[in-house]
Here is the input.
Amino acid sequence: VTHFGALAERINSTRLWDRHEQLATFGATSRGGVNRQALSNEEFAARRQLLTWAEPLGLTPTHDPAGNLFFRYPGRNSDLAPVLCGSHIDSQPTGGKYDGVSGVLAALEAAEVMRETGLVPERPIEIVAWMNEEGSRFAPGMMGSEAFARVRPLDAIRAVRDANGVMAGDELDRLFTVFPEIPVRPLGFAAAAFVELHIEQGPVLDAARIPIGVVSGIQGKKTYKISVFGEEAHAGTTPRSARRDALRAAAAMIDTLHREIVDADDVVRFTVGRVNVEPNAPSVVPAKVSFSVDLRHPEGEMLDGFALQLERVCTELAAPCTADVERLVDAPPLTFASELRDLIRETADRLALQAIDLPSAAGHDARNLNTVCPTAMIFVPCKDGISHNEAESVLATDLVAGTKVLAEVTAQLASR
Amino acid sequence: VTHFGALAERINSTRLWDRHEQLATFGATSRGGVNRQALSNEEFAARRQLLTWAEPLGLTPTHDPAGNLFFRYPGRNSDLAPVLCGSHIDSQPTGGKYDGVSGVLAALEAAEVMRETGLVPERPIEIVAWMNEEGSRFAPGMMGSEAFARVRPLDAIRAVRDANGVMAGDELDRLFTVFPEIPVRPLGFAAAAFVELHIEQGPVLDAARIPIGVVSGIQGKKTYKISVFGEEAHAGTTPRSARRDALRAAAAMIDTLHREIVDADDVVRFTVGRVNVEPNAPSVVPAKVSFSVDLRHPEGEMLDGFALQLERVCTELAAPCTADVERLVDAPPLTFASELRDLIRETADRLALQAIDLPSAAGHDARNLNTVCPTAMIFVPCKDGISHNEAESVLATDLVAGTKVLAEVTAQLASR
Here is the structure.
């Protein structure tokens, strides 16, 4: 039996760091980042590298039909539901070296030290790299975990096409052809728990210089496409009273929403990031404007209230145009299992690593896993909260701290 | 001596209408419009057609170095400054059959009936087709009249390139090669007056069913590019207080300007027609927004006042972003010579044609001619004010009415 702390003290900082650097060579960009989109040749090469590292550990690789890659660390009782542990290795087109990757490499490092200490847990452990978390090539993302958790049918995922018209399903078939040695298991299986280590992608931990974030949950998110329909007219001749200016109405909506969707604690996140104007010519009154809304809040009731406000403002300010409010995403806020959060917090305490609770502002595969098993996340700091960016930067000591917690937590969960 | 009304009663509606149809075959589009851009082969072919019509009338063709095409109807005293009369035959890429063309064909029809009645005016009359009014191929437009009036140096005009990199100067040289029989006269000459018939390109005359518009002048126009500079940020993580949202500031500006740049009489024209957002992604706080402003008013003082208001609003509402207000066009309002406007109004009255005064909302070659000689414009109605559009539509009776006034006005001017 491995005593508490034996795994943590063996975490190899150099190995962990070097593997981040090595994985970053697959899809490396000239500005120090990574372009390794889902099911691309670069991502296939990175998967091959994971296999190379897993093999001497005796980990058994499997694919599922959604292209999720698993490595099994055996337990005493192979009939027990395994503990799942991992993240993703696909990246944004101008992504960094740590987003997703850290969660997979930390889980692999945990397996390394488990093997070194001869740990044989009660339950098996499955390290996982979820397929297409980022959604930059095939949108929307989190495809692999959605399929695994039956949140979205695999057929719908396979039918998605990238910008070149390539179907995700065809790329999945290519994956299985490129890796014929990896058996394809049935989609989905009972898991005892899922733990995901991830960089925070926000500024809180880095600003406070605290290495461990115990993620309380993921804030709720609603996204919309607002379309405003007016009428094209000549800028020089058409009087104001005869215009139905779609941009005039849209600007009033955006301005009003920015003044109304606010709170004293600055918790709500309201963003209009995209605006498209037609015909978008300087001397033509716009006939059509569409704009995106990204609305987030950790509390469901607050989020719903702001959403009602959004629909009211867009309806009230449309005239003399008409407006259509289309909701694209409606993900309610989520709270991770308290027993797992307690276990992470206690484990950090026992390892003398400072930890705080904080919510995740971004979505993660853990959102989907939370629907099928007790789920938790461990955050580590990233510099200035910068992520989805080639400048993404992380301290090795923080990676090590997070990996220590992950290894000890996983071992405890697998021993139950 | 031809008595008043003798020209008007001879205007040949069928000939005038058929020539519009025939000229529309050069660059005809499948949707009933015209794509006959400046100095293109299609425009050269249309010039050739004008020559064919002018020849039996004994009109003498000349080019000037700016590619303006003149046809001289001789007067008793060839030393006197001629009366200029015409418009342009180039079109927008999806233009109509009447914009510009009507002014040239009306002048040609006037020459037809002058010849038929044996009119020999005191002064010569020069019918003109100005080079590149539209500016869609070589931007900006009104090149021929700008060169003629010395508003812009010919060298600068010759240096302009189209989207394929072809220089206007090379196309001018090609014009002179294609038409070696047309002598090239020196650029610019003293003119006694310029009269341009044109479709209104606005709804006033058509709505009131009045055939003749006595154009009071051209409203002033200022255009701007406003650039707002903020900072890219993550829509899910960055609190409102830490954002510098370029779109939030731009929306406030556009909304405020739409509420402030108004007048009781609905005369000012304020348009934001183009908005560009960077990076224009739904989950990224916009880092940069630029938008166009098109501001017009017939009175210079009012226009300047609104312009000051525009700059103040953009400056005041920029924080926490910064804003840059760049003025692109500054064309002051212009009033045409009152003696010519009186003459047009009286002529219409004597011909029992209903006429009203109205300003031109759009720019015309007459703007440039007004800087070198007494200038006036006659508007005729176009359906629903639609122009710069393949659906441009005009009634033959309105064209005839306008041509009657043009012929009688030109004859009177040439007799002075």
User: Anything to note?
Assistant: Chain A touches chain B through 53 residues (CB under 8 Å). Chain A has 13 helices and 16 strands. The first strand of chain A starts at residue 60 and ends at 63. Chain A has a mean pLDDT of 96.
